Amino acid sequence: MKITTHIAIVLFLLGTGFVSAQIKFEAKVSKNKLGVNERLRVDFEMNKDGDNFNPPSFENFMVVGGPNQSVSQSWHNGVRSFSKTYSYFLAPKAQGKFTIGQATIEIDGQTYKTVPVTVEVTPAVQRPNDPDNAVAVADDNIHLVAEISKTNPYLNEAITVVYKLYVSSNTGVSNWREIDNPKYNSFWSQNIDMKGMKVENGTYNGQDYRYVVLRKVVLYPQKTGQLEIEPLSLDLTVEVPTNRRDIFGGRLMTQVHKTVSAGSKTINVKPLPENGKPADFSGAVGNFNFKVTTSKAFLNATESLQARVEVSGNGNLKLFQLPKLVLPSALEVYEPEHVENVRTDLNGMQGNIVDNYTIVPQYKGKYPIKRITFSYFDPKTETYKTITSDDLVIDVLEGPTNASNSDNNLALTGKHEVVMDSNHFAFIKTDTALKPIKTDYFFGTSWFWASLLSPLLLIPLTIILRKKKAARDADIFGNKIRTADKLSKKYLGEAKKAMGNKDAFYIALEKALHNYLKAKLHLETGELSKDRISMLLREKNVGDATIEAFNSILSSCELARYTPLTVVTMQQDYDKAAKTISAIDKEMR
Questions:
Q1: Of 105, 158, 272, 409, which is least packed with CB atoms within 10 Å of its CB?
Q2: What Å distances lie between residue 418 and 285, 412, 415, CA to CA?
Q3: 139-148, 427-436, 524-533: least confidently modelled range
Q4: What residues are paired with 396 via a beta bridge?
Q5: What is the model's pLDDT at position 420?
Q6: Model confidence band, residue 245 (pLDDT cutoffs 50, 70, 90)
Q7: DSSP 100-164
């Protein structure tokens, strides 16, 4: 029995020692001697899976890739073989002999260590092709390029920058992120929206590559001279083939991280020529059309029409001002509404920009619109071009007549010319009738005693007024009501002054209505919902028609910012608001 036990123990120990002897964990380097400009690959390989892998510190080296992990296993004659590898790619920091320290791992509860490896770093060498160096392979097969449409444009002439990432056929990119995002200083820039990325075939340095367009940008230089386009830099996760193969014979891939940059580019921007530059040139560069039109040719006085000044075409549409419309003084003109309908593609900005003028004639008659000109520089022909608007006439059929001479002006105003004659100063008297002034003493008079006693009488009056003021100041709720009432009147006055300026008018009108409700219904700003307003007004015996009119004015204020309105509509809304407020005051109990 004892012999059997001893034999079992011996066999167990032998088996354990045999298993332990089969576990391998070792460090392998791609080369023991390399130039300072070369990369070193270090593999930590084991034949059984383990936990808590801990690499060495890699002193005197910079880790440029890794750790990359690969696992392979196969069966041969019923025997299973397993291999797991942690790979690092190192760049030496200096020349000399350096030792790569021990790595550790835990396998079946025991800690295993690799043997330190010594490598020699020599001066820089002409790097040969190294198929085992994944980082070197990635360097040779991944390129980021910035393609610029024109390197010597004119000031404000469009150029395009297209960023392409070229990848060789035996390499792949699984992920990327931007590191440096160019700011395009001294350029007006516009990114072009891209719907997805499409892989295409092309060539780079005469070799076949696949490429994908990452970004498209349109630039308009705003300064002359040499301008720098900052580089775009990316951090890539690159899939590189190795010399190892899977159980089916396919080549295994390894991942490395790589930073690529398109590099900075210099643009030489030419100034626009001074020779032949028109006096009205405002900086437009491109190819444009220009016209001035009106919405009506015939109308009555106090009616409104729209005059449209429009530039359309291809060029720096957002970077210059439209010429101003010149109109007769008898026409009331409001500040124009500027509208831009511009899209941007690889050809630059295209579309149109418009200034819409609202015009209200006051008198009957025919009013010609003075011709205006628009000048631009065409970079294709390198010449200035000028376009003149057509002749336009506004014919006002009905309305008061505007006096055209001084006699008519005098008749309209009720004034008469002054006629000089010889009796012009006949009213001045030449004889005097002076009388002596009687002098009375002030002391002892009623005015004397009133002046003496009035300050004493004002003391109790002042005390009473101060108490009333203190009580008024302490009445927080009442002060809010009075402040809201004042603000309502103030904003209603501002709305009247802003007639013709749509945004300012409706903002002031809306504030006037809200403050009126806060004063009348004792509301706070957060309680100004239409339902609550309607309920409280009904409780105050205000009629449904008046409530509906008030809510419709509030709706007009909300919608006015998104719809075109004329001064006539604003006047109608103002009159309606004043009438509705007056009706609420009369009906409220």
A1: 409
A2: 59, 17, 9
A3: 427-436
A4: 299, 365
A5: 44
A6: low
A7: E---EEEETTEEEEPPPEEEEEES---PPP-TT-HHHHHHHHEEEEEEES-SSPBTT--EEEEEE
Each residue's pLDDT tens digit, 366-424 = 999 989 999 999 999 999 999 999 989 999 998 888 765 333 333 333 333 334 444 44
Q: Residue 162 has what pLDDT?
A: 95
Structure tokens at 585: 């005051």
Q: Would you identify the CATH topology of the domain 286-396? A: Immunoglobulin-like (2.60.40)
Of the CATH numbers 2.60.40.740, 3.20.20.140, 2.40.30.60, 3.40.50.1820, which one belongs to the domain with range 24-128?
A: 2.60.40.740
Average pLDDT of the segment spanning 421-433? 52
**What integer pLDDT is reported at residue 355 of this predicted model?**
95
- In the chain, what are the domain boundaries? 24-128, 137-269, 286-396, 444-468, 476-587
pTM above 0.70, yes or no: no
Residue in the structure block whose two tokens are 């002439």: 157
Right CATH for 476-587 from 3.30.530, 1.20.120, 1.20.950, 3.10.150 = 1.20.120
- Alpha carbon distance 464, 469 (integer Å): 9
The domains spanning 137-269 and 476-587 adopt the same CATH topology: no
Which neighbouring-strand residues pair with 384?
A: 377
Q: Considering only CA atoms, which of 311, 360, 295, 306 is closest in space to residue 336?
A: 306
CA-wise closest residue to 150 among 139, 135, 161, 137: 161
CA distances from 294 to 306, 307, 310, 501, 564 (A): 6, 4, 11, 20, 16
Type of residue numbered 313: G
**SS3 (DSSP) at 258:** strand
Reported as half-sphere exposure (CB side, CA atoms, 13 A), residue 279 has a value of: 1
Pairing of strands 337-345, 104-107: unpaired
d(CA 339, CA 64): 53
Within 13 Å of residue 520, how many CA atoms lie on the same side as its CB? 25
